[in-house]
Amino acid sequence: MAIKIKKIKNNGTRIMSFVASGFDKKKKPKKSLLVKNSRNVGRMKTGKISTRHRGGGHKRRLRVIDFKCIKTDIPAKVISVERDPNRTSFIALLAFKDGEQRYVIAWQGAAEGDEILFSSKAELNKGNRTELKNIPVGTEIFNLEMMPGKGGQVIRSAGSAGIVTANENGYTTVQMPSSEIRMFPDSCFATIGRVSNVEHNTITIGKAGRKRWMGRRPQVRGKVMNPVDHPHGGGEGNQPIGLKAPKTPWGKLAKGVKTRRAKKASSKFIVRRRKPKRK
Asked: What is the pLDDT of residues 240-258, one digit of tens each?
């Protein structure tokens, strides 16, 4: 995979870039693994907007991804690696030895013809899925379960990977992509390797229209609004937001406020919280 820059045909494509995946664009996804996706983005069941700046975008169909990977001890072969418009990573179409086909999150380096296995006795090869207690310290993992049998819930975005740091007392300690260190039951399953499309965060959108294709509507800065519309609004010309802390349009603090519940049950599994991002 490589980042390619568009040819300059207008101002929108002057800096636009994309991931040259090398996939066959004419190849259609597996029809039996597609589901209709009726989108009502950013709205409650009553139709009222609950999250601003969402809506529109290109029509998509959902690919049914197997996060649980319950077909254990049955060898599978990669038929194809495809792009999924609903996620940042690529997906791999697997054909199991019993004839069934399923989509899974593709790992970095996945290619047509690769053979993998989901098993507690699987070898430590990229794409194989096994229990945490069988994975040695220092190994990269992704699509990790939080509870045994629940299916992969974390470490699923493009280019991300967790690192196994310890195995003891029935728990495995994993360093998450956010730098948080957390314990998981060692009977949870995880996939060996790193999520595909590692160059996803280096692409340049290039123009506002491309963002609209993704279902993102325009945003307006609070400082250019009137005081009646936003706490940052008002003033003559371009003014700073003032000495007060940044606030939401509804007057609540916007940055540096802890939102995690103090007595959340899973807090006991967190060994070290994530480090704050450098400004």
From this structure: 887 778 999 999 999 888 8
Measured in degrees and rounded to the nearest 5, phi and psi for residue 267 equal -65, -25
Superfamily of domain 226-267: Ribosomal protein L2, domain 3 (4.10.950.10)
Q: Which CATH superfamily is domain 2-201 in?
A: Nucleic acid-binding proteins (2.40.50.140)
Instruction: Please answer whether residues 43 and 29 qualify as being in contact, where contact means their C-beta atoms are separated by less than 8 angstroms.
Output: no
Residue among 143, 169, 167 nearest 155 (CA): 143
Strands (E) across the chain are located at 2-5, 17-20, 34-36, 61-63, 76-83, 90-96, 101-105, 115-116, 129-131, 140-142, 144-145, 152-154, 162-168, 171-175, 181-185, 189-192, 270-272
Q: Is the dihedral of CA 80, 62, 54, 152 positive or negative?
A: negative
Task: Note the pLDDT tens digit of each residue in 116-159.
Answer: 999 999 999 999 999 999 999 999 999 999 999 999 999 999 99
Instruction: Give SS3 for 83.
Output: strand
> Any bridge partners for residue 174, and if so which?
164, 182
279 pLDDT higher than 70? no
Exposed / middle / buried, residue 30 (Cβ in 10 Å: 0-12, 13-18, 19+): middle
What CA–CA distance (Å, rounded) separates 93 from 23?
13
Identify the pLDDT of residue 67: 96
Helix (H), strand (E) counts: the chain: 1, 17
